[in-house]
């Protein structure tokens, strides 16, 4: 029997970010719904044609989205919160209102999709939620694909994951108690898809790779028993990915679903677990042997033997990706400026599809020969190539001792830092000031060669001077240079460090129309020369007040890059940390007394299973401490955390041993402070009081109120007053009045 060749999902933003551009054009009023829909239609059709042409035999369907797949399900199940319905707008505009808010109506909450840098919108449920199926999108998608000549397998979020990722707006109400009502909607939907001729439907259940309670596993069994018993339905594929489904796997296998997808890249050991599952010889196993989250070519020989092992035990085999390819850029071939040695080892979404097809052919046509031409030495493993090895870096990592991760005791540092001369409730910002159109234009001009480096530097210095005098005028205590020279807080460093490559077109959707271009960390990391010192010391030369040096921490640099997979990530983190350590020391020698090392992604990389979290916190906290451990007692180290709920990593935050931690807190109204004090945290802390994700300018009274709450939890001599995050996405018309209120509120609180 032929092996099925498929992938679990595919990017949708467009190889040239066509969707981003079309959506933004629509938002700005420069196009209408018809034009946007036409672009969307073309993009989907191009994708189907491309994937089918490459030789996949079943394509994932319904993977397109104008903004986010979870948001699509809010529409699919007719659970649009009343505040958006009341706007009385069209279906499309209601959808975008949920994503982005509308005037005074707050959008749905945006949060990270498992341990990725993709963000989804959080559906809101109440005890009164009624699901009303609105199947137009998946049905239309199925029909449109068929019209384009391809058969698709509609992809949906599974009921468990949907409920577990939603939030209840009725206090104390568990979304999971809506399961039976929700299953009615799934049952109806499966009936409609069956009637429309869908052969398979894919139900994504990544929530199963997190720790699940017995009650949740029970709900899982109930859900799939019920769906599998439907008489009119397509075959069901339940997809788990990003990790080990653990106890959920036998539960799923005991139901009558026809297919199971497993992530064999994150969890190779699943092969043996699958082999002993009683019902497995009646199921189609979708073997995720091609990594859907990282950019390295697959070791095809190994993947092939994994598949061969499975062939003996499973009913039928499908070769697939470990997860949706949503998390990868489109095409390596577009990267003509990459070092050919690096490029030869990379596979983006298109190349991953080719790998799946090759593996499928090798298996079904019994011609492993098709793999041979890919196993050539120029594409051999990274760690065996000269490309990735830098002996001096390895020697330095080998010589790291515990003392390198240990600064002087906090009390001693606190004394030594008194000479900086800070008052109680010191005010500061998180680093960036607005990235104006002018600044972006200057960067484009440098890239295109219209201006030279000297002109560029001159303009950046002028900007720094402007930002410094603005901060002095506002009366802030600790100043920043404003980060005008940074295109992105990770890419800026990746471009200057050895061991990293950056791409030109390697865009990946982060949320909605926002895309990022993660750098590629392919080799041993080192710092050829200082990266930020000239900007920081220029800024410091303009003022008597202390200027904070500004660095991105090792964990965040790894989290927002594609990282080599040929050595433990802890080693890679230490290499990055050593490079940053040198930068911290250089900043201090240049007269900078305060250095901030940002770690907004500390929470993001936290493993999904609690059993693995300690090991993660050990190496991540260790890397941060290595990066900052070269700072003498009188240098004040700050860190900054945001984008997440930090409750789960409080011990880690304490472990960072930073002198001052600024942390997002405005929206949760200082909740984090309670958690920190309860955990015995006793160093400096700056809970954000100004929510910079909103264009609103907070009033001085609101800020005073938040400061009062903070002062109740933390003594004033350890409390800092600052915004939630950097100001780069805001405009000066908002930032100036907001910071004025912030400084004034701090003054009021002090008196
Ligand atoms: N220093 C960075 C800035 O202000 C921090 C950004 C972040 O936390 N994401 O822009
Ligand atoms: Zn931040």
What strand line-up does the widest sheet have?
A: 1-12-11-10-9-8-6-2
Strand content: 5-15%
The tally of helices reads 28
Q: Name the overall outline.
A: globular
Structural class of the helix and strand makeup?
alpha/beta
Largest sheet: 8 strands, parallel
CATH topology of the largest domain: TIM Barrel
First-last Cα distance: 80 Å
Count of β-strands: 24
The CATH architecture of the largest domain is Alpha-Beta Barrel
Q: At the first level of CATH, what is the class of the largest domain?
A: Alpha Beta
Low-pLDDT runs:
none
Can you tell me the number of structural domains? 3
**Helical amount:** 40-55%
Compose a concise summary of this entry:
The protein is of the alpha/beta class and 751 residues long. It is built from 28 helices and 24 strands.
Describe the protein.
- It is built from 28 helices and 24 strands.
- With 751 residues, the protein is an alpha/beta fold.
- It has three domains: 1-17 and 44-55 and 258-371, TIM Barrel, CATH 3.20.20.210; 58-63 and 116-253, TIM Barrel; 422-750, TIM Barrel.
- Residues 430, 600, 640, 642, 725-726 line the site of zinc ion (ZN).
């Amino acid at each position: 029997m032929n092996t099925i060749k498929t992938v679990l999902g595919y990017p949708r933003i467009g190889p040239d970010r066509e969707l981003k551009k079309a959506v933004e054009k629509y938002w700005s009023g420069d196009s209408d719904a018809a034009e946007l829909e036409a672009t969307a239609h073309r993009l989907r059709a191009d994708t189907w044609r491309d994937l089918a042409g490459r030789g996949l035999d079943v394509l994932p369907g319904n993977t397109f989205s104008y903004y986010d797949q979870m948001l699509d399900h809010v529409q699919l199940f007719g659970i649009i919160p009343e505040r958006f319905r009341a706007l009385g707008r069209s279906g499309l505009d209601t959808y975008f209102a949920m994503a982005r808010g509308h005037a005074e109506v707050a959008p749905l909450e945006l949060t990270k999709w498992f341990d990725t840098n993709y963000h989804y919108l959080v559906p809101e449920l109440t005890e009164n939620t009624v699901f009303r199926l609105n199947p137009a999108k998946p049905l239309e998608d199925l029909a449109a694909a068929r019209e384009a000549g391809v058969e698709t397998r509609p992809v949906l979020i599974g009921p468990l994951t949907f409920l577990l990722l939603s939030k209840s707006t009725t206090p104390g109400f568990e979304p999971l108690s809506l399961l039976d009502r929700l299953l009615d909607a799934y049952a109806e939907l499966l009936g409609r898809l069956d009637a429309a001729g869908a052969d398979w439907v894919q139900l994504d259940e990544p929530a199963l790779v997190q720790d699940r309670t017995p009650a949740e596993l029970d709900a899982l069994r109930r859900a799939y028993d019920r769906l599998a018993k439907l008489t009119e339905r397509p075959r069901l594929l339940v997809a788990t990915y990003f990790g080990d489904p653990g106890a959920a796997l036998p539960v799923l296998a005991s139901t009558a679903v026809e297919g199971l997808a497993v992530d064999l890249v994150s969890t190779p050991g699943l092969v043996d677990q699958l082999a002993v599952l009683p019902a497995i010889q009646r199921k189609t196993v979708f073997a995720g042997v091609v990594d859907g989250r990282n950019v390295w070519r697959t070791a095809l020989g190994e993947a092939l033997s994994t598949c061969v092992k499975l062939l003996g035990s499973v009913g039928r085999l499908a070769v697939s990706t470990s997860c949706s390819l949503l998390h990868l850029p489109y095409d390596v071939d577009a990267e003509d400026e990459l070092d050919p040695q690096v490029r030869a080892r990379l596979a983006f979404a298109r190349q991953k599809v080719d790998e799946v097809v090759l593996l499928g052919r090798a298996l079904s046509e019994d011609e492993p020969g098709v793999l041979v031409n890919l196993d050539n030495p120029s594409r051999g493993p990274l760690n065996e190539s000269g490309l990735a090895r830098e002996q001096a870096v390895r020697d330095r990592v080998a010589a790291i001792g515990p003392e390198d991760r240990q600064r002087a005791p906090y009390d001693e540092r606190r004394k030594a830092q008194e000479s900086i001369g800070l008052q109680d409730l010191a005010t500061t910002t998180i680093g960036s000031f607005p990235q104006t159109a002018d600044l972006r234009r200057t960067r484009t001009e440098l890239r295109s060669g219209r201006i030279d480096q000297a002109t560029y530097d001159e303009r950046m210095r002028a900007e720094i001077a402007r930002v410094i005098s603005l901060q002095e005028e506002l009366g802030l205590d600790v100043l920043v240079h404003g980060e005008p020279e940074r295109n992105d807080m990770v890419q800026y460093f990746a471009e200057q460090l050895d061991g990293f490559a950056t791409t030109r077109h390697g865009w990946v959707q982060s949320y909605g129309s926002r895309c990022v271009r993660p750098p590629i960390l392919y080799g041993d990391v080192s710092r050829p020369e200082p990266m930020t010192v000239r900007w920081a010391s220029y800024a410091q030369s303009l003022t008597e007040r202390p200027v904070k040096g500004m660095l991105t921490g090792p964990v965040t640099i790894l989290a927002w890059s594609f990282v080599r997979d040929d050595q433990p990530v802890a080693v890679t983190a230490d290499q990055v940390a050593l490079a940053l350590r040198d930068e911290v020391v250089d900043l201090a020698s240049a007269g900078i007394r305060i250095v901030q090392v940002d770690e907004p992604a500390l929470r993001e990389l936290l493993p999904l299973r609690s059993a693995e979290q300690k090991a993660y916190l050990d190496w991540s906290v260790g890397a941060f401490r290595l990066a900052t451990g070269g700072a003498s007692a009188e240098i004040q180290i700050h860190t900054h955390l945001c984008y997440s709920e930090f409750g789960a990593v409080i011990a880690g935050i304490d472990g960072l041993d930073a002198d001052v931690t600024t942390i997002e807190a405005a929206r949760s109204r200082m909740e984090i402070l309670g958690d920190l004090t309860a955990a015995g945290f006793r160093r400096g802390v700056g809970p954000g009081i100004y929510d910079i994700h909103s264009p609103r300018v907070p009033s001085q009274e609101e800020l005073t109120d938040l400061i009062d709450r903070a002062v109740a939890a933390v003594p004033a001599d350890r409390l800092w007053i600052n915004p939630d995050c950097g100001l780069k996405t805001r405009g000066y018309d908002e930032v100036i009045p907001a910071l004025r209120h912030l400084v004034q509120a701090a003054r009021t609180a002090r008196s």
